[in-house]
Design a protein that fits this description.
With about 180 residues, this protein is an alpha+beta fold. The protein has a single domain, classed as Cytochrome P450 (Cytochrome p450, Orthogonal Bundle), CATH 1.10.630.10. Helices cover about 30% and strands about 10% of the residues. It contains four helices and six strands, in the order αααββαββββ. The strands form three sheets. It has a two-stranded antiparallel ribbon with strand order 1-2. The protein is globular, with a radius of gyration of 17 Å. The protein starts with a helix and ends with a strand. The site of protoporphyrin IX containing FE has 15 residues, from helix 4.
């Protein structure tokens, strides 16, 4: 939601897609999600830029390592500038028409890990993320409180086992 409130064009495009595909007066259903490529791209882009479990727990490379001829570079993969154009910008469009997924098959984007220790809650988490975000965007118009400008939003993150906003987001919903 923070990235959408900071990027009003993205929020407007997500609303438009929801209005066109499921209709202004209908509630979002799980079966609608496969027909919402832009909402799906927003979820992927959020998981790239703000991975909720950023360290993949104990499996982060602290230095460049080579294993069986494959180089595992040090550091955060979601913002690697050799893989992603403009890696620090929130651009869901980068996933439209792209085969990169978040399910452990695309090694440049591993918010749920990969292989035998991949997150077993992935399928539940992805269902919930699309339903929650899609319902919030589709059901309400959103504004920032007290004349706060999008560019003034505090993007500081609290680093830990899971990554969260350092301070909660305050936003004002109006029923559409
Ligand atoms: C957006 C939501 C979530 C993200 C980004 C996420 C991410 C991750 C990551 C990165 C790992 C470590 C994988 C590895 O070690 O390679 C993990 C492990 C795990 N996750 Fe999740 N997770 C999410 C939601 C959930 C949910 C909803 C559940 C349970 C209902 C869950 C249960 C677990 C468990 C049990 C493990 C440990 C698996 C093992 O070590 O064998 N996660 N998750």
């Amino acid at each position: 939601m923070t990235e959408l409130l900071r990027n009003s064009n993205t929020l407007a495009k997500a609303k438009k897609e929801l209005d066109q595909i499921i209709g202004k007066d209908n509630h979002l259903k799980e079966s609608d999600v496969p027909r919402l490529p832009y909402l799906t791209a927003i979820v992927k882009e959020t998981l790239r830029l703000h991975p909720p479990t950023p360290l993949l727990l104990p499996r982060k490379a602290t230095t460049d390592v080579e294993i069986h001829g494959f180089t595992i570079p040090k550091g955060a993969i979601g913002r690697d500038s050799t893989t992603w154009d403009d890696p620090n910008s929130f651009m869901p469009e980068r996933f439209l028409g792209s085969k990169v997924d978040v399910k452990g098959n695309s090694f440049e984007l591993l918010p749920f890990g990969a292989g035998r220790r991949i997150c077993p809650g992935q399928s539940l988490a992805l269902r919930m993320l699309h339903m929650m975000l899609g319902s919030l965007v589709h059901g309400f118009d959103w504004e920032l409180p007290d004349g706060l400008k999008p560019e003034m939003l505090d993007m500081e993150e609290k680093f830990g086992l899971t990554l969260q906003r350092a301070k909660p987001l305050f936003a004002v919903p109006t029923v559409k």
